[in-house]
């Protein structure tokens, strides 16, 4: 495989769409509509960086993760890994790509098979992708992996239930690392963990990235965690990317009303800021993705809404006077977070 | 049977600002096949009208069990309150017979649970479930109860309440379901609401709406609120004072501003340094090594000592008492002074 140049993304998504059909009837299933889980998104991931994807439940971020892994087939759109469309690959060629894109799942309780030992779980990728390590070295490799993620290599014969939540997440990470992938998709990897354990796992992700040069697609709903770990961030709402930029652009100069509302709603652990934050209170709930609003999907909850919002869907483009793409007709910078530099 | 202490009673009549709830030296244990899990070990706090107390802790710290013991909804067996008292306006609820206690539950103290979908009954309409409070406790007719349910749904700002009163829980979004839970807990105008992780399952924009609603309702009715949570961000926005729990014990109690500004217990200090903040750049995350202890086998001395960066030999030998730090502030650390002024050294 040709080494990628620094300015070329190792993973690129163009116009990715996933619609889940809604059907009626049992025998002659008639399609009556579709849940538009992901509706035309573009993403780019460069080597060694972390792309954060944030959004609330139902915005399509987990569907995106599944599509990137090709666990689901996209309805439309392309996913390029080193310039090669992975949707067109099959058989051996696809297996080779799979090896390089791995996933760490949210729930460390249900994503590990309770009847397999930790050694078997972590060695399973080697059994599927034969020839990565010689047979005799399997055990040694697994133990090395356990050590890398901070687990005791002696615990290779234990079962998942004998570990705590944070340790189980480490097992999941070891499994994801086994094949030395270039990309790890992290789907809410720290959401189920306690605060004191969450920090350990976040630091582990950062350490592994520094040491192994991994690229992460880090999907999460927690904006504080995403800011901490990401180089660039894409904000999703109802199956669309509404704003994208580097960490500083999104958090310090948000331009899309949804990003602004989302950021302003994040509680800050500092009681002296109480009542002083610019808090934008959104009305109502996220509309159903089976029947999204016309035009701009955020318009039903937006305080800037005009007639044009219902008629013309705003494109994700860099608008006049701004420095990063935003999908709003009236995009404008609003500081919602007073950022300080940690001492 | 009346457990009211006459002196206490007089005090409560005179002083509108006297605590509505006083929990003292509460101990709860679970007797399981694997041994006795000491879930709550000597927890004390009080709550005044209109005040918001946050009980902060990680999973397994005993915060929810404390709430269940106060409400009297502990699963017995295996859970038993072995010691302590829970006084509501001077009356010890733990000594009341179940029949009397029921009059307090819902009427004086009510509770909001984390998972609204599993707390609501899927086969009854939400109006029926809100109205149930009035039918059971007040003997209201079905028609009256429904009318009151609509009023309450309006009060918790559910749009088109009169149209939605006959809808079932699954027809509502997560945020709306939590509003229904709040409506049920508000129904009988309680003096205290205990909210157990009320927004943990919600998205952040919806969380902001629900917390705002709770704050508004509290301001209207002067009720006390006990917020049980693990989220230091939410606490900073709403609480007046905090009790931090670790392995079933209170380790620090303080008014909100000093606790965040200068923690007097290493656990609180480390916890604050371990959370990523949305308003901080280039922050290094400190970690607390290890994991919270198993409650059937709590470490000797200070329960936090195996994970504490400052632990000394005394920490594994003696249980640190909850000592007064300043007015309204207590810490259970042998070295609280050094932690407070930052002179403590890591091992």
Can you give a write-up of this model?
The complex is a heterodimer of chains A (343) and B (347). Chain A has 343 residues and is an alpha/beta fold. In chain A, 29% of the residues lie in helices and 22% in strands. Chain A has ten helices and 13 strands. In chain A, the strands form three sheets. A six-stranded mixed β-sheet of chain A has the order 6-7-8-3-9-10, with helices on both faces. Chain A has a four-stranded antiparallel β-sheet with strand order 2-1-4-5. Chain A is globular, with a radius of gyration of 21 Å. The N terminus of chain A is likely disordered. In chain B, helix 5 runs parallel beside helix 8, helix 6 packs across helix 8 and helix 8 runs parallel beside helix 9. Chain B is globular, with a radius of gyration of 21 Å. Chain B is built from 14 helices and 13 strands. Chain B has an eight-stranded mixed β-sheet with strand order 6-7-8-3-9-10-13-12, with helices on both faces. In chain B, strands 2-1-4-5 form a four-stranded antiparallel β-sheet, covered by helices on one side. The model of chain B has no long low-confidence stretch (mean pLDDT 87). In chain B, 36% of the residues lie in helices and 23% in strands. Chain B is α/β, with parallel strands linked by helices and 347 residues long. Classes of the chains: A alpha/beta (343), B alpha/beta (347). Chains A and B meet through helix 6, helix 7, helix 9 and strand 13 of A and helix 8, helix 9, helix 10, helix 11 and helix 12 of B. Strand 13 of chain A pairs parallel with strand 11 of chain B.
